User: Fold this.
Amino acid sequence: MKKSDFYYDLPESLIAQHPVEPRNASRMLCVDRNTGGLQHRHFYDLAEYLNPGDLLVLNDSRVLPARLYGEKEGTGSFVEFLLLSQRGDKVWEIICRPGKKCKPGARFSFGGGRLKAEVLEVLEDGNRVVQFECEGNFYTALDDVGQMPLPPYITEKLQDKERYQTVYSRELGSAAAPTAGLHFTKDMLSDLESRGIRIAYVTLHVGLGTFRPVKEDDILQHHMHTEHFVLPQETADLINRTKAEGGRVISVGTTSCRTLESAAQRCGDTLTACEGDTDIFIYPGYRFRVVDGLITNFHLPESTLIMLVSAFMGYWNTMYAYRTAVQEQYRFFSFGDCMLILPDMKQLS
Assistant:
């Protein structure tokens, strides 16, 4: 398939610039994975589509306030850092702007000196490796000084940092939020568990490669970014039990989906705890081994994420659902509305 096969026309006015309140008031396009049938609901209706014994798998990664604005020591000129991945104790790979100021040995200050950094190395792709300095805990200083690394299509300032975190986030390490989980409230999770819906967690630290465009028109020529994931034994056991008892494993987000399918590639059909890096690329033709249902936001045209959705519920079903979402004025992307995709969805029969 070609990249252009996954294009759809999206009016800029439908790109959500801020989250809805409360979290679970977002709209939810319900799609039957098998037939492509559609129903328009809200996220707070989710329980109506789930059965006791179903399992929701959530990504508990927490977003780092990874965008830093500061100045170059000696000149006071402006600089912006974006943290990508940790290389060592207070050593990070970053993107910096403007790059000409970030040569090896250059030093920078953030938050009036709360954080300082020195460039150690310039990598082949233009990223930098820097050593940070601070008094006390690095992550505390980062939380004080840093800002949320919102995607480039969000132009409005975020007033509350926690609105770009899921209510269950706990493992620091993401450069972007696992946005399908932003719709849950703590009360909603408790209510689902009281109804017999199982909940389990994986960790996948979302990288900025999530927003990297597919450049080659032949999608098979695209090389996926690598992200680190952890599948705990407790979650593996719950998945195996759910499958054995006839329940459905429902992935909350494409990151959870990529984690589960990566684990299946390593473990086979019976999952066990595993951890590692994954660059799995899921596109139409892929056979899903773990995931039966998917909750996901609406993704950018021609992105690897809409390709994953197309693999899950079929290309024509996906493009029809997206065209319908545009016609019905759904809100798109990170702060937007979502889709619930299930096989043989009883409410749509």
About this structure: The chain has a mean pLDDT of 95.
